[in-house]
Amino acid sequence: MKFKTVHYHYVPELLKKYAELMNKPEVSSIIDKGILSSEDAKIFINFIPDFLDYIRENSIDVEIPDISYEAEAFVDEAGYLSEWDRMIDNL
Known about the structure:
Blueprint: H1 11-21, H2 25-33, H3 38-57, H4 64-78, H5 81-89
């Protein structure tokens, strides 16, 4: 299912922008098409810590709670919340 937001409608486009800047076209595609497999979930979930590192290293000001909320909802809707929780636990 395509990335549908719950509250923060700017989040998918923001994540796509940084996925492209970070040379992660597969993440951009997943945001467009949705999480269709466990491999898609793994790619998207693993992108989030890389994204957080990128914004910290480049002193980019973004609303991390908004992004986290929407990304978690996206993963949960696809049925991969336990994988998301494991990633959060390892941050």
